[in-house]
Amino acid sequence: MKKSLFTTTISLLIIFVSLPILSYSQTCNKDDEKVLFQIKKAFGNPYHLASWQKTLDCCQWYNVECDQNTSRIISLTIFQGNISGQIPKQVGDLPFLKTLVLRKLTNLTGEIPIAITKLTHLTMLRLSWTNLSGSVPSFLSQLTNLNFLDLSFNDLTGSIPPELATLKNLNALHLDRNKLTGVIPDSFGTFTGNVPDLYLSHNQLTGTIPKSLGYLNFTTIDFSRNQLTGDISIFFGLNKTIQIADFSRNNFTFDITKMVFPESLTSLDFNHNKVFGSLPTTLTGLSLQYLNVSYNRLCGQIPQGGDLQKFDNTSYFHNRCLCGSPLATCA
Ligand SMILES: *[C@@H]1O[C@H](CO)[C@@H](O)[C@H](O)[C@H]1NC(C)=O
Ligand SMILES: *[C@@H]1O[C@H](CO)[C@@H](O)[C@H](O)[C@H]1NC(C)=O
Ligand SMILES: *[C@@H]1O[C@H](CO)[C@@H](O)[C@H](O)[C@H]1NC(C)=O
Ligand SMILES: *[C@@H]1O[C@H](CO)[C@@H](O)[C@H](O)[C@H]1NC(C)=O
Ligand SMILES: *[C@@H]1O[C@H](CO)[C@@H](O)[C@H](O)[C@H]1NC(C)=O
Ligand SMILES: *[C@@H]1O[C@H](CO)[C@@H](O)[C@H](O)[C@H]1NC(C)=O
Ligand SMILES: *[C@@H]1O[C@H](CO)[C@@H](O)[C@H](O)[C@H]1NC(C)=O
Ligand SMILES: *[C@@H]1O[C@H](CO)[C@@H](O)[C@H](O)[C@H]1NC(C)=O
Question: How far apart, in whole angstroms, are the C-alpha atoms of residue 195 and residue 63?
């Protein structure tokens, strides 16, 4: 009792003594401030960055965040503002940046600048819903601390750089809604640390899924709306841990009859492909929240039981000769 009172007193004392020190250390770093002014200028001094003014400590500005101890800029987040032009190369001169988000900026154009590779502390890079063009640069693999990389909803072209598989800390990779072509790299079966959730939908990817991806335990895969061919069975099997799988609107052509689905699976969508055979009864053993196998070439009776009759007939319709509840009774 006595001791905890003593500890509390000491803690309070420390807080009071350190308060002025803390607020003192919040003073903006002059190098960072200078760089931010250069960025503001490069964007044409937009209204969105009106709080970026000399009269205000830069740790107080909107769209940025300082580290509490060092007062260095650690986050730059610009969302839905009237920003036009290219990403200024000066963003590379905020050496302590951990988060860089430029999102819903339709007038942001040009390519992803190589200066970004100077941001070695970066953990989150999100350049999405902009009009960025050019390729997905392989130099992004130099940002080894990245755990979240989102380049979705842009005009990016070219193929997916295999080097991205060297990012050991990646939890999620969003390259969806671009104009990417070519194949899914073989190297994506060799992520050595985390196995990231892969979002590659709404591109123009072709070819088969590399066998190497079968060696990893993915949790979420979204390859929908591409022109992928072949087989998706490598993601399934009893010893897999996949939960959400969307392969819809591709050109997958395989016999599903003998496929084994892991218990972890909660959402499966492969509508609009050329999958044939009959639905395996193991599907009745799963806790499915979503299922859509419509617009394929399936035949035979829909296995009865589990969650399979919970879905309406649009989960199953437009197949060759699939039958049984919730579709019409088999002949
Ligand atoms: C984008 O640029 C156009 C042309 O300069 C302008 O009319 C429009 O308001 C801008 N939009 C945004 C969201 O900044
Ligand atoms: C964006 O800024 C441009 C020029 O700075 C201006 O002409 C335009 O009206 C602005 N658009 C919006 C949506 O604020
Ligand atoms: C963004 O790109 C699209 C397609 O290229 C184009 O239609 C649109 O006008 C562009 N928007 C801006 C603000 O540049
Ligand atoms: C699953 O088991 C098969 C054979 O039983 C094996 O070849 C495969 O490597 C295993 N996959 C994983 C992800 O453990
Ligand atoms: C995938 O997960 C299963 C089940 O947790 C495990 O048995 C298997 O070893 C894992 N495989 C890999 C390659 O991590
Ligand atoms: C679909 O795959 C088949 C081979 O399985 C191929 O002949 C056909 O050209 C592909 N179609 C498209 C639209 O990619
Ligand atoms: C399944 O996909 C088809 C084709 O996109 C769609 O028409 C249908 O509504 C979907 N069903 C469900 C339950 O989402
Ligand atoms: C699907 O169900 C609706 C009503 O529940 C029915 O009107 C429709 O004919 C059914 N379609 C098929 C293909 O079974």
Answer: 31
Give CA–CA dist 152/175, Å, rounded. Answer: 5
Count other C-beta atoms under 10 Å from residue 94's C-beta: 25
Q: Which of 43, 86, 107, 109 maximizes ligand 1 atoms within 8 Å of its Cβ, making it the mutation to test the pocket?
A: 107
* Residue in the structure block whose two tokens are 């580290």: 67
Q: What is the pTM of this model?
A: 0.89
Whether ligand 8 lies within 6 angstroms of the CB of 311 is answered as no
Q: Where are the beta strands (DSSP E) in 176-271?
A: 179-180, 197-199, 206-208, 220-222, 227-230, 244-246, 251-252, 267-269
What average pLDDT does the segment 23-50 reach? 89
Q: Coil, strand or helix: which one is 26?
A: coil
Which structural domains are found in the chain, ordered by start?
Answer: 217-331 (3.80.10.10)
> pLDDT-based confidence at 176, cuts 50/70/90?
very high
User: In the structure, which protein residues have their CB atom closer than 6 angstroms to any atom of ligand 1?
Assistant: 82, 84, 106-107
